[in-house]
Design brief:
Blueprint lengths: L2 H7 L6 E8 L2 E5 L5 E4 L33 E3 L10 H6 L7 E4 L1 H9 L7 E3 L5 E4 L2 E7 L11 E7 L4 E4 L19 E5 L9 H11 L3 E5 L12 H10 L4 E2 L8 E4 L1
The chain binds fe (ii) ion.
The site of fe (ii) ion has 5 residues, from loops.
Length: 259
C-alpha cells in the first residue's frame, strides 16, 4: 500500500497528532478529525544540480509522488528549493482541493505553478490562520542568506492535542525564543549548521530556552554536502537542555505525539 494511502487510512487517537517525516524539513501531520497538514515537502530531485560542485542529489527516497498527494493544508516556511519546490508544486494533481500557506515568495511560486489565488493564504511571523481543527501561528526565523529574506517557522495547534513548533531554516538568534509564548510541546528543528542554519549546539540552546517536552532534529539527511550526525544534537541537548527529550524520527513511519 502506498504511504499516502497508509496516511489516509491511519486513525489518530483523541488529544494526539500523528506525524510522518519525509526527509529534510518535510512532514505530514494528521489530526484525530482527519485533517492533514504538510510542511516543506520536497518530493523530487530538483536540487541535484543547483550548485556546481555541491552534492545535492537526494539521499532520501521519494516516499510520495507529488501526483499522489492529497492534503488539506500545504505549507512552506521559505522560498529555498528544498522547501518550496516548484517541481513538486507543479506536479500536484489536487491543487484545487488544498489550501496553500507560506510567506510571499512561496505564494509567488504557488501562483506560478498553477495554484489559484483563492487557495493561497499568505503567512508571516506572528500571523494567525485556522483550517478546520488546526491553528497555525507564524514564528520568527532569521534568513540564512540574501537569496530569500522571508524565512519563518510555524507553531501548529492540533485541536485539543499537542502544539508543535517547527523552526524552518534559520540562523541562530535569541528572537527564536519568542516561540515559547505558544508553549509548544514539541520542537522540530534544523541542526545541520551548514549555510548559516543553526548547528546542533545552537538548536539545543534554543530548545533549552523554549522548554518543549520533546525535540526532533531534521534537515540533516537529504544532501551529502549538508549533513550531520543527529547524535550530536542528542549530546548537545544533554548539556544545554537536559529536561528536553530527544527523539529521532524514522522516515515514512507514523509517530504519535500526545498532548
Ligand atoms: Fe533548507
Amino acid at each position: 500500500m502506498s504511504l499516502m494511502q497508509q496516511i489516509r487510512d491511519y486513525r489518530v487517537p483523541q488529544r494526539a497528532v500523528a506525524v510522518w517525516w519525509l526527509g529534510q524539513n518535510g512532514f505530514i501531520f494528521k489530526t484525530p478529525e482527519g485533517t492533514t497538514v504538510s510542511t516543506d515537502l520536497y518530493l523530487t530531485d530538483s536540487c541535484a544540480h543547483l550548485v556546481e560542485g555541491f552534492d545535492s542529489k537526494r539521499q532520501v527516497p521519494v516516499f510520495i509522488e507529488p501526483e499522489e498527494l492529497t492534503l488539506d493544508v500545504f505549507t512552506c516556511t521559505h522560498n529555498h528549493q528544498d522547501h518550496t519546490d516548484p517541481e513538486t508544486i507543479r506536479r500536484l494533481a489536487h491543487k484545487d482541493t488544498m489550501a496553500f500557506v507560506g510567506p510571499p515568495p512561496s505564494c509567488g511560486i504557488y501562483r506560478a505553478e498553477g495554484v489559484s489565488d483563492d487557495r493561497i493564504h499568505m503567512s508571516w511571523p506572528d500571523c494567525e490562520l485556522g483550517f478546520r481543527d488546526v491553528e497555525i501561528r507564524g514564528t520568527f526565523a532569521l534568513p540564512t542568506d540574501a537569496t530569500d529574506l522571508n524565512h519563518m517557522g510555524f507553531v501548529f495547534s492540533f485541536g485539543n492535542g499537542p502544539r508543535v513548533y517547527i523552526t524552518g531554516d534559520t540562523d541562530y538568534t535569541e528572537l527564536l525564543v519568542s516561540a515559547a509564548k505558544h508553549k509548544p510541546d514539541v520542537m522540530i528543528t534544523c541542526i545541520n549548521g551548514g549555510f548559516n542554519n543553526m548547528s546542533h549546539w545552537e538548536a539545543a540552546d534554543i530548545a533549552g530556552k523554549i522548554q518543549p517536552r520533546l525535540a526532533i532534529p531534521c534537515h540533516y539527511d537529504m544532501f551529502a554536502d549538508n549533513a550531520v550526525d543527529p547524535r550530536q544534537f542528542r549530546a548537545s541537548l544533554l548539556l544545554r537542555a537536559p529536561n528536553v527529550a530527544y527523539c529521532r524520527l524514522n522516515h515514512a513511519e507514523p509517530f504519535l505525539i500526545e498532548a
